[in-house]
Amino acid sequence: MEKRLLGRTGLAISPIVFGGNVFGWTIDEKSSFDVLDVFVDLGFDAIDTADVYSAWAPGNRGGESETIIGRWLKARPGMRDKVKIFTKVGSDMGVPGHKGLSEKWILQAVEDSLTRLGIDCIDLYFSHWPDATPYEETLGAYDKLLKTGKIRSIGASNLDATQLGKALDVSKLHGLPAYQVLQPEYNLYDRSRFDGALRDLCIAQGVGVVTYYSLASGFLSGKYRSTEDLGQSARGAGIGKYLDARGLKILAALDLVAARHEAAPAEVALAWLIARSGVSAPIASATRRAHVESFARAAALRLDAEDLAGLEQASAA
């Protein structure tokens, strides 16, 4: 399978990253192991999670996703050498002081994540959300972790162009590690946060990009086409906002391209991201084997100029 360099991290990854937010939420541990096994068997090699996943599920406290990934790695001798592990710090863990990007919390949170994952080094460690902590402090904490080998590289999620630009300036001015990867929300429907200044900055500075909500919470799969469809899954409640004229126009364009290639709409939506200048790889979740097999078809799908033009026209704001 094709490998892509992820910014300046030195990491080469497959063109789709597995989104671990589903572990301990919409699928149990056994099913999580099964889909991860298929993912690796098909040639993929990067898994994204966060310390807070999946605290929102009833009875959860956070750390469930990392724990499941850690148990999977332990049960599969040699697997650690085959995969790259991404995780994040900064979200509210529900305990006083256990949130944000202060040095004190980062240095504690990384140990918690390493323990849950059962590994001694995180390949890519993200700041999950911007906060009021000075960049000098946050990047200084990451400097310590890089020097001690706890992490290999750093990234940031949910920064806008101004915030990322300032962080990169602080790194250069103070000789601190720089964010090498951005994780923005980006898909055929939600384009405004990344397209434009932020995308231009990432391309100019060589910042790798892995997108989240790559399928708009499943909307771009074509599974949800009316309000009556929203009860099909736990994610349905967040999909109603996409059922407007523009969203339905995008689905129609996806259907057209999918029919042309004998593909599924979700495969086309992921292939569009893979082909997009400035995007290293989309993140996508799966709850069963068929979803992961669809990832492989998406990674192999090559959209032509007519396909891209049709999708561009339909998704224009």
Structure keywords:
317 residues; alpha/beta; TIM Barrel; 8-stranded parallel barrel; two-stranded antiparallel ribbon; 10 strands; oxidoreductase activity; oxidoreductase
Strand order of the largest sheet: 3-4-5-6-7-8-9-10
Shape: globular
CATH superfamily: NADP-dependent oxidoreductase domain
Quickly name the level 1 CATH class. Answer: Alpha Beta
Provide mean pLDDT, rounded: 97
Distance, first to last CA: 34 Å
Q: For the CA atoms, what is the radius of gyration?
A: 19 Å
- CATH architecture annotation name: Alpha-Beta Barrel
Quaternary structure type: single chain
| Total number of helices | 10
Which spans of ≥5 residues are poorly predicted at pLDDT below 50?
A: none
Largest sheet: 8 strands, parallel, barrel
Number of strand segments: 10
* CATH topology group: TIM Barrel
Helix-and-strand structural type? alpha/beta
Give the count of structural domains. 1
- Assess the beta-strand content as a share of residues: 5-15%
Pfam families: Aldo_ket_red (PF00248)
InterPro entries: AKR_Detox_Biosynth (IPR050523), NAD(P)_OxRdtase_dom_sf (IPR036812), NADP_OxRdtase_dom (IPR023210)
Domain NADP-dependent oxidoreductase: 15-314
Protein name: Alcohol dehydrogenase
